[in-house]
Amino acid sequence: MRSALSIAGSDPTGGAGLxxxxxxxxxxxxxxxxxxxxxxxxxxxxxxxxxxVFPSVVLEQIRVLLRDIQPAxxxxxxxxxxxxxxxxxxxxxxxxxxxxxVIDPILLASDGTPLLERRAWGSLISLFERAALVxxxxxxxxxxxxxxxxxxxxxxxxxxxxxxxxxxxAVLVKGGHRSGAPDDLFASREHDGTRFAWLAGERxxxxxxxxxxxxxxxxxxxxxxxALGQPIDKAVDEGRSFVAGALRAAEAPGxxxxxxxxxxxx
Length: 266
Known about the structure:
Blueprint: E1 3-10, H1 17-27, E2 31-42, E3 47-52, H2 55-68, E4 73-76, H3 82-91, E5 101-103, H4 121-126, E6 133-134, H5 138-145, H6 152-165, E7 170-173, E8 184-190, E9 193-199, E10 211-212, H7 214-227, H8 232-248, E11 258-259
Parallel strand pairs: 1-2, 1-4, 4-5, 5-6, 10-11
Antiparallel strand pairs: 2-3, 7-8, 8-9
């Protein structure tokens, strides 16, 4: 049995966070293990409160789990506080170097609620050197790389910072918040420099409330692909196809955003 581990915040709606990650892992036929980094009080319209789990509890969750179950891939989602990030790093120190790590650097909720305190950004960045892939959206890429990403050239400059300065093996800058075509930028470290590939996206209009959890689903789908032994390029392509299918079927279970309807693995 292939297992993937998500370390992320709990979303009681099930539309994003740890609960969504486990649903995506299951859709790919991968057993999902989960470590809770934060509790949230939220509904389908907004995040009302974020409560980080005690950092020592996060660390013990990871340590006890990894003594028993060795995941084939690990995903980091919302980590909430600097102390939690530092304890996650301590817990993952025993992880075998060949186990791929995907980091979704969640800074803010869609409604603007901070999901990672500002002083934790440096600690999160220190984990990038261990990452097989980092998946920022446009705002996260701009904040963490310190580059204007409003143009393709600027987006490539930010991706270069992630790969060449922050130490990521690869970065996927998600373009869903861009006006016009929501193309993503994939950049990876090669022996002769940084390789860039623009991946065409399709704008799927789903109303003013938007869709909840697309970023979580994408990074989880890529993590599942890596757990199954896929190369990074294939895992990214299949993950993007999975999310596109889920977006087309999205429904609104409450009064706010639509949620992805997760199809079987393509």
